[in-house]
Write a structure and sequence with these properties.
single chain, 394 residues, mainly alpha, 78% helix
Length: 394
């Protein structure tokens, strides 16, 4: 037991302060003696993992959060980077000890280094303060703005006014990108990328796509814009993420997954934006045919047909079927809706369900022969024979 006590004291000191170390031969001899007993071997393994958690990781995490809490808003990027570097350096200062201890763990245990990293992930995840998400989001935003500036300076004359406002000085941008790469490499080495970046990265990506949609697409119905947005996602967002994670071992696989997710998110956000404008798109039809074509692509990718139906029902009831509306105007919009929805959904499911409130309204007010003739004439010129049968058999 004297050997056990001596080993525990020595290893415990090295965990708390890595600069304190025994000669490897002496430590290996003590480890060989203790682990010759299977029960002590198991006990040593459990003790070491717990000691790394309590004497090292909790202390380091508290120091990390203390540094970040004291950060001024203008220094978030520098402070987050140096804090992660501090955590990275402290852990890797103990890597030789962990590797040595790993030679003496029971055969049924996982790699000790990987087990220690899992414990670190758990400690960081559980003890991360709420303010951490805001700090990470702020840093990611700075890094994205820097990357965007470096990759759009050559085409500054083609930038939107909002994009010009976000431009960063080239020297500052270069420095921010270097800091970003160093930061993500260290996070990957600690296997903390998902724990610290996951939520904030998702929020930033969604916000940037929404802002781009608002700038490039809102109210623009006369020309296709979905392809342009997807090109922006690939050439700006996806390239930025590729730059951030280029040094990781799983970069090719993880980035291909990210590209699929970015496209699916873009389809969903674009579809949701167009749904809020669908009534106006129908009013402008057929001039808005490109907008309908873009929305069709999105609904095919995301399965948002039910949202289309619900959105149109609400829009019809709020903006069309009100007491001040003229029946001829309602018929005109009804025929436009038929044309647009047949293009959006050739199966007719969306048309049948979305236009139900209009059909009920027309039935309640009655349609005389002149109105039927007028609707028939419009339908004929638009080549929508389905409109005739729908109106006649209300």
């Amino acid at each position: 037991m004297n050997t056990w006590t001596s080993l525990i004291e020595s290893v415990g000191s090295m965990i708390r302060e890595p600069s304190v170390c025994l000669p490897e031969e002496q430590l290996s001899q003590q480890l060989s003696t203790v682990t010759s007993d299977a029960r002590l071997k198991h006990k040593l393994h459990m003790w070491f993992v717990d000691e790394m958690k309590t004497s090292c990781f909790l202390r380091l995490a508290n120091e990390l959060w203390r540094r970040l809490d004291a950060t001024k808003e203008s220094q978030t990027v520098e402070c987050l980077s140096t804090s992660v570097s501090f955590l990275h350096n402290e852990l890797f200062a103990r890597k030789d000890l962990i590797d040595l201890m790993g030679k003496y763990v029971p055969s049924y245990c996982r790699n000790l280094w990987e087990e220690v990293l899992l414990v670190l992930q758990a400690v960081v995840f559980v003890h991360t303060p709420h303010s951490m998400d805001d700090i990470v989001f702020d840093c990611l935003t700075h890094w994205f703005r820097a990357f965007h500036s470096l990759n759009t300076n050559s085409a500054a004359g083609e930038l939107d006014e909002s994009e010009c406002d976000d431009m960063v000085d080239r020297n500052e941008a270069d420095q921010l990108i270097t800091t970003c790469l160093h930061f993500t490499q260290q996070l990957h080495a600690l296997q903390l990328t998902h724990v610290l970046l996951g939520k904030s990265l998702n929020e930033l990506v969604e916000e940037e796509i929404k802002q781009t949609l608002k700038t490039k697409c809102t109210g623009h119905f006369s020309s296709p814009v979905l392809a342009e947005v997807l090109h922006w996602v690939d050439s700006v967002l996806f390239r930025w993420m590729g730059t951030m994670f280029e040094a990781t071992a799983e970069s090719v696989e993880s980035l291909s997954i990210w590209k699929e997710r970015l496209h699916l998110l873009t389809y969903h956000l674009f579809g949701s934006m167009r749904l809020s404008e669908l009534f106006d798109i129908i009013v402008d039809f057929p001039d808005s045919e490109p907008a309908v074509a873009d929305l069709k692509i999105c609904t095919e990718q995301t399965g948002q047909k039910q949202q289309v139906i619900q959105s149109l029902k609400e829009s019809f009831e709020l903006r069309l079927l009100h007491p001040g509306a003229n029946t001829p105007d309602i018929l005109t919009q009804y025929v436009s809706a038929i044309k647009a929805l047949r293009m959006l959904d050739p199966s007719g499911v969306v048309l049948e369900q979305a236009c139900q409130p209009v059909r009920q309204y027309l039935k309640s007010v009655g349609i005389d022969c002149c109105q039927l003739y007028h609707a028939t004439t419009i339908a004929f010129h638009l080549n929508i024979r389905i409109a005739l049968t729908t109106v006649v058999f209300i």
